[in-house]
Amino acid sequence: LSDALSSYAAATEVPEPQIKNALNIDLAQLKQALERASIQVFYQPKIDLSTMKVAGVEALARWKNTQGDWIPPSLFIPLAEEHGLIGDLTLSLLEQILQDMNTWWEQGNYIPVAMNLSAKSLAEFNLANEIIQRVIRQGIPAHFITFEITESALVVDLPSALATISRLRLKGFGISIDDYGTGFSSMQQLSRFPFSELKIDRSFVHGAPERQYLRNILKSAIDTGIRLGITTVAEGVETEAELHLLKSLGCNQAQGFLLARPLPGRELLGWIERAAQ
Ligand code: C2E
Ligand code: CA
Ligand code: CA
Ligand code: CA
């Protein structure tokens, strides 16, 4: 938990004590936030390592409660899952993402977005259909959206995860295996799922230039992606040495504080423009 807190503090630039105060989150507040749609989406750029241009963004949920405290997603996502609210939360975040995408499109920026889907939401009846309907209604082509699903989410309820994922993939959405390396999937299991992207967990990226065993894991993860013929993305890139190593290992994309922090939707285009200069 303390690890989650410090990473959240870094991601939001909110002092840690202020977040700690907010640990007392309650269900009533979460329900209210959902009704008022006050959980926001921030976007963290992902950089293409061959061109160093923005390849897309990851949408990350941000909740500032009524006391003005930031509650980390590592706390409120599990709470929403526990109380059957994750489906509603996911769809509310998706609506915001689609609106933001439309705003960017109107300004000529076609930015692919990756959204996280939690383990429990994968098992929700009809989630895939609800997602598909909303995307069609907003007129965004499916291939501009990727769903990130953690390796561990797959084992929660394999048949329904496989059904939801396959349905989304058939419609043309991208599917990313998130936090790759932290679960226990074998090559054989992976090949059963129609993944289009492999996202390597931060724990193998951070510190890899100095540690041989991490470097070996990193290399084998990237090689797995290459063998599966899918895009490889490394998360949590914090140093130039890590970036350099990823490039030399043939990783396709990188994401992390070195490159960009998660930003509110209205700041993203400005950031991209400045980065291109
Ligand atoms: P994740 O999917 O692995 O997301 C990456 C997390 O790493 C984000 O934390 C991001 O802010 C943080 N991060 C990015 N770059 C760096 C870096 O260079 N160093 C470090 N230390 N951290 C970095 P965040 O936003 O607190 O999200 C935590 C987790 O909460 C996410 O992990 C994801 O599993 C979950 N989550 C966030 N938003 C959503 C959502 O909308 N829906 C669902 N279901 N889960 C979400
Ligand atoms: Ca993710
Ligand atoms: Ca991840
Ligand atoms: Ca991770």
UniProtKB/TrEMBL annotation:
Q: Where is the signal peptide?
A: none
Q: Which GO terms describe its biological process?
A: phosphorelay signal transduction system
Q: Which GO terms describe its molecular function?
A: cyclic-guanylate-specific phosphodiesterase activity
EAL domain span: 23-276
Whether Ribonucleoprotein counts among this entry's keywords is no
Entry keyword set: Phosphoprotein
What's the name of the protein?
Response regulator
This chain's source organism reads Cellvibrio mixtus
The beginning of the lineage is:
Bacteria, Pseudomonadati, Pseudomonadota, Gammaproteobacteria, Cellvibrionales
The portion of the full protein included here is: 138 to 414 of 427
